[in-house]
Fold Carbonic anhydrase.
Amino acid sequence: MEGNQRWVSGNLHHPDRDPNRRQLVAQTQKPFGSILSCIDSRVPPELLFDTGLGDLYVMRTGGEADGPVVTGSVEYGPLTSGTPLIVVLGHQRCGAVKAAYTSLRDGKPLPGNLQAIVRSLRPAYAQAVRKGGPDPVETMARVQVTLLTADLRSDGVLAPLVSRGSLAVVGAFYSLDTGKVEVLTSAPS
Ligand SMILES: [Zn+2]
């Protein structure tokens, strides 16, 4: 979050990006966080948290759509290198969420494997429709974060780490307008 404040203000440190750091992490890695975010070109986690090499595991899918391969990739850090933090990061004006919302509302499947993203986002759509509100796509994007965060917290291999206090699973939302990351759920105390 300190890195994100630097990103917002423009006072960037660009940490962990020199040849020394490259050598230090060449044989082993111990990132402090795992981030599941969207493929959106305007939401690169390493940049918006002002991090560098070996700092983060990053998984990116359209609308943070999940599935066994994605969940396995999220589990990888906490299980293999004791990563203490998972962040699910949604964002403002998410094109993938908007496309899934429109597809489900109109009953029109998207072409090819885009439909797999729609299927993955269906629970968020259903909850967003129940919630209502002036901007249903924004609501759905936020619901997707809170649903995924809850899923990961109760994940079979992650839940024991969470209850032991060695893993936090945090939901967060990125503003394209301000660059600011807002924590939605479960910030560690
Ligand atoms: Zn997106």
